[in-house]
Design goal:
With about 120 residues, this protein is α+β, with helices and mostly antiparallel strands. It contains three helices and four strands; from the N terminus they run αββααββ. It has a four-stranded mixed beta sheet with strand order 1-2-3-4. Strand 3 and strand 4 form a beta hairpin. It starts with 17 loop residues before the first helix and ends in a 6-residue tail after the last strand. The relative contact order is 0.19.
């Protein structure tokens, strides 16, 4: 199903290191928001992750990758879930995130009171 968030996988590239992935995502998200391609600005950052999702290549600290929806009016649960699924539907991206030491994908609203977590290894097969 094609959604406005289907462009997100193209924002993830240059998987040589974690900082590049975050910077490139944020640059592409900002550009897409300015051009009207997405309805709100998304911001990528590191998080502590979920300790129950650890795997053999998980980073010791900050093993989660968090996507924040930067809007005053919070996105619905359905929209937050769609954002997450846009990552998880691309096995190559999921595997790249795993090899870079991430084990948890988080998508949350700006206030941080609503969101989702996914165990990346569940989506790599």
């Amino acid at each position: 199903m094609e959604t406005v968030w289907s462009c997100i996988p193209s924002w993830i590239h240059d998987g040589k290191n974690r900082k590049n992935v975050v910077k490139n995502f944020n640059d592409a998200a900002k550009d897409a928001y300015i051009k009207g391609g997405v309805p709100c600005l998304l911001k990528c950052c590191f998080s502590r992750g979920n300790k129950t999702y650890k795997h053999s290549t998980s980073s010791w600290f900050y093993s989660g990758i968090r996507i924040l929806a930067m809007v005053n009016d919070n996105l619905s649960d359905e929209e937050l879930n769609r954002i997450g699924l846009s990552f998880l539907s691309n096995k190559e991206i999921v595997r790249m995130l795993i090899t870079l030491g991430w084990d948890t994908l988080e998508v949350i609203n700006y206030t941080g009171d609503v969101g989702f977590q996914w165990k990346l290894t569940n989506y790599s097969k």
